[in-house]
Structures are given as structure tokens and as C-alpha cells.
Amino acid sequence: MQEEPKVQRFIPSEYIGNVDDYPEQPEFYFANHQPIRDALAAQKDIEWTLFNLGWLADYVVPEKNRYIRNIDDAHPVNFNDKTMIIPGAGDEPITFTTARDGARAIAHLFNAPAWEPVTYVSGEATTWNQVKDLLAKHGHQLRLSYRPTAELVDIVSNPTSHTADDVTAAQFGMWSASGSTRVPEEKAAAHKEKYFAGLRFQSLEEIISTTERDTETVI
């Protein structure tokens, strides 16, 4: 597998949720990510870890306050359309971590003498209904609706009957509705102590409040 002899450690592009229990979620990840996972597990030349952090928390602030681009209805919160479309019942567990905190964690990870096959970080464990209440508390007036899990399953199961964007949005929705967005909290806590001692990860309340105090700030 190793074509570059200088490479000794490798973090493939994962950045999702509970890959231990839900390796197939989100569905569009599986076809091109699982072969890489299998190839890494089958070799001994390169040390590697799958780094996962849940949803990027950056999406709960408007586009001007973050570096990452919009993904429109693939994310439940759409500030441009002033909508929030919650997948499932909204009480399913999810994890949020900011992109900046994820990057800081990865930088610390390279100082660790050894890695585990999967690494988890967690900025905040919550639900979409709690996110809805938090955004309302901070004055965001969004048109609220829910997409039942049965509807998401139907779209994902019948992709030729829907647009590609609808299928992708439904697959993202199933990622939340299945509970697989929530990283295993016990493992995340253990990894924080093992790899990220001294790092403090931001909560949703913190990043939203930061953009309220300075409307031009970028988190």
C-alpha cells in the first residue's frame, strides 16, 4: 500500500460520527471510504487513525461567520432560506465540534506516541430539538419542519425516483435520524484525557454568542 516511503502516519478523510457502530453511515460515505478503511487495517507499514467529531458546529452560525461553505438542505439549518428541517423526531443524539477545535485536536494528536484505530472528539452532545431551542433563544426566526425517518428511508431506498440533491440530503438526514452522528461519549472522554488534555472544545452556545458580540467574527 505504501507508495511514499517517508509517510509513517496517516489520517484519512473521515470526520463523521460513530464509525465503530455505524460504519455504513452516512450512506454515501461507505462505497469510497470502506475500501480505504479495509486497506489500512490490512497493512502494518503506516500507523493510522480514523478521526471523527460529529457534525461541524460551524453550520449553526451564518455563512459570513465561518470559513466552511454552505451545503444547503444537506444540513438541517439553512440561514439563507431561513428554514430548519429536522430529520427524524429531533430527539436522536448528535455530536457537534467546531472545525477549528477539530484542527487543534489533530495537531495535538501528532504529538501522541501511538494511535488507536479510531479517535473521537466531542465539543457538545445534544439533539436537533435542543439546537432548535438554542437558535430560537438567540433570536433566529427559522421556519421549522420535520422529515420523518420513514420519508428519509423511502428516498434513500428509491434514489432513481428523486434528484441527486434530495438523495444526498436524505442520506445526511438518516445520519442524524439513526443516532450515528453522536460519537461514543465514553470513548471521546477517554481520548480527551489520553490525547487532548488541556484542550477545551467550544459549545454551540459559545460560538453563537461569539458571533452575536462581533457580527463580523469568523469562528
TrEMBL record:
GO molecular function: oxidoreductase activity
InterPro entries xrefs: NAD(P)-bd_dom_sf, NmrA/Isoflavone_reductase-like
Keyword entries, A-Z: NADP, Oxidoreductase
Similarity-based family: Belongs to the NmrA-type oxidoreductase family. Isoflavone reductase subfamily.
Protein name (record): NAD(P)-binding protein
